[in-house]
Amino acid sequence: MDVASRVEELRKLVEHHTERYYVLDDPEISDAEFDALVRELRELEEAHPELRTPDSPTQRVGGRASSAFAEVRHRVPMMSLDNAFSFDELVAWGKRMERYISSGDVDYVCELKIDGIACSLLYENGRYVRGATRGNGVVGEDVTENVRTISVVPERLSGDGVPEVLEVRGEVYMPVSAFEELNQRQGEAGLRLFANPRNSGAGSLRQKDPKVTASRDLRFWAYQVGEVQGGPRLRRHSETLDVLKALGLPVNPEVRTVGSLDDVFAYCEHWLRHRHDLDYEIDGVVVKVDDLGQREELGSTSKSPRWAIAYKFPPEEATTLLKDIMVSIGRTGKATPFAQLEPVRVSGSTVQLATLHNEDQVRVKDVRPGDTVTVRKAGDVIPEVVAPVLSKRPEGLPEWRFPDRCPVCDRPLVRIEGESDTFCVNVDCPAQRDGRIIHFASRGAMDIEGLGEKRVQQLTSAGLLTDPGDIYHLTYEALMGLEGFADISARNLLDAIEKSKSRPLPNLLIGLSIRHLGGRGAEVLADAFGHLDRILEASEEEMAVTPGVGSVIAKSVHEFFALDRNRVVVDKLRAAGVNFQGVARSELPPTLAGKAVVVTGTLESMSREKAVDAVKARGGTSPGSVSKKTAYLVAGAEPGAAKVTKAEECGVPVIDEAAFLRLLETGDVA
Ligand code: IVH
To answer: Residue with the nearest Cα to atom 10 of ligand 1?
Structure first.
């Protein structure tokens, strides 16, 4: 294809996808794929100026007013931002700033780039009079009544020096937790699911009936002003944000003003790693020159100001072909459907498998083999299929049906009434057997180095392992008879197995794959009974009355050890000399008895695990999240922002490492 045709094609594609995104709230491709199209178009136009036209989408801000709402003409255009897709591009921008600014030093305001819907809110004499979407930057949609339903948007501005006219700009968004709840309700009502919080936010804001908007949890962060008449004279953007806050408008608490590009990078790196600690989605960082005089010096292009840039995080979503849906069987027999995908790059890695959770999820999402689907890989979370791209569905594509037999042992699969999971109930199913052994040897349980999935499968296929107890009866000779084993690897594995014999009792309990028994339950049981044999002898009632255990775990543990097959495993472990003894109870005074101390971030003097142990050894607890019941939040280096915010909301004291050490020593922080 020649360049001119490609440019024409790209323009059509960009127009099409702009409409899907801004007007229909139903994008077919990810933001990153969209950005790539715009970028290719811009590069071609730059290399071939003769092909440039004034109506090219690169010359416009993007977005268009939808006909459903009245039009609002922005008195000061709502511009867009230039993007930097890498640190190199960010450096180039920063260097440009420093070169062009004659007065020397540059301060930057770093803000989170909220992935929501840009809106303009107009206040006259302190009273909210109009809300509008950005639209194409010049003309937007009148969403006054819908915005009025957002609880954090004040009806009246507060404080001194309220300007006669204040047009504040910012982002309307839906918190991730609200998006998840909304989708749950949509699913239960058999309605279409939203692909992500941005789409559900946009869909909720642009409702014909403001009552529907009012029923959705929308929020707003203010980050810019448009038209202003009266009010205090402002010299810096950071002052503007302070004024907005003082007027009662919500300003994001993570905004930072910094004096160097190095600090800008540190901010970007921090949020690249911690973006999922927040209860709202961000897709990058916006860096703005602070000094309004310097901004004037720099000016704007037709589309965006030169004094700001959006550093975009690598994409977490992509579209690809769903080749097939398969079912895997876990160690508890749970049958989990998963998608086999045409390999695609997401969040910096290649994804070819993605979970679909359970039968209902496949039905609600209505994904079918042969569909083009959106795939998401957010942070450390396992890749997930979000939704099909319906406009790309081949005609007559059949719905997918959950299999009725186990793909591994061919016995019937059973779905328990009222539950969403389906199970293979054959305890001898090879998939379950392997899964149980893999879990037993895994890091959170007996932590046997070198005994991963592949090795376990090799050993079970060779008939050397049938249950976790057999691990301790493997011999050097038997291992040496297997492919891939040599003297050193066989000895290393046997050493690792030997080492695991002395793991604490909770690890052993976790390793046995007892349904409903998690880490916390295992610790409580080990603490309360002190020895595996005491747990074996205990009645269901005795266990159920133990604080922190409860009837569900008690019943499950009791039933587990009542089965001969599990007793056989225990006997094999005992014969091998595996530790059954609980940890000796602490000799330390219970200075933190009844107190919950949550730890976040990195401590210098000890690991997080050690800190948790230290709290427990003094009679306290150390839950994973902050609530009103938390006594202290210990914040080490790079603490989880969500935890700190929650602590502040709940009035929980946030203490540093030194205060924590005093707390351990004396039971008090003073
Ligand atoms: S400033 C002229 N600050 O990103 C500068 N924008 O492509 C106006 N956005 O349209 C925007 N968070 O929808 C700014 N902290 C932030 C932002 C932000 C999200 C969005 C906004 C804007 C788009 C720019």
So the answer is: 80
| 213 C-alpha to ligand 1 centroid (Å) | 23
* Pocket lining: 79 vs ligand 1, CB cutoff 6 Å: yes
- Residue with the larger pLDDT of the pair 664 and 27: 664
Tell how far the Cα of 646 is from the centroid of ligand 1, in angstroms. Answer: 26
Mutate to test the pocket of ligand 1, among 117, 223, 238 (most ligand atoms within 8 A of CB): 223
Report the C-alpha dihedral over residues 52, 54, 59, 61, rounded to 10 degrees: -160
In angstroms, the CA 499 to CA 505 distance is 14
CA–CA separation, 410 and 269 (whole Å): 49
Contact by Cβ (8 Å): 241, 292: no
Nearest-angstrom CA–CA distance, 635 and 657: 7
Q: How far is the CA of 150 from the centre of ligand 1 (A)?
A: 19
Please determine, for residue 639, whether its predicted confidence score (pLDDT) is greater than 80: yes
> Which residue has better confidence, 75 or 52?
75
pLDDT at residue 456 greater than cutoff 70? yes
Active site residues per annotation: 113
Q: Provide the pLDDT for residue 460.
A: 96
Q: Work out which ligand 1 atom sits closest to the CA atom of 308.
A: 5
Q: Is 77 in the pocket of ligand 1 (CB under 6 A)?
A: no
Please indicate whether residue 584 or residue 103 has the higher confidence score (pLDDT): 103
**Calpha distance 529→534 (Å, rounded):** 6
Distance 183 CA to ligand 1 centre (A): 26
The pLDDT tens digits of the residues spanning 170-227 come to 999 999 999 999 988 887 777 777 878 998 999 999 988 888 899 999 999 999 999 9
226 Cβ below 6 A of ligand 1: no
Is 224's C-beta closer than 6 angstroms to any atom of ligand 1? yes
Pairwise CA distance, residues 15 & 63, whole Å: 9
Average pLDDT, the chain: 90
Order of strands, sheet of 108-114, starting from the edge strand that comes earlier in the sequence: 83-84, 308-312, 282-289, 108-114, 256-258
Between 46 and 570, name the one with better pLDDT.
570
- The partner residues of 353 in beta bridges, in order of sequence, read 340
Tell me, using a 6 A CB cutoff, whether residue 467 lines ligand 1: no
Give the CA-trace dihedral at 476, 480, 481, 482, to 10 degrees: 110
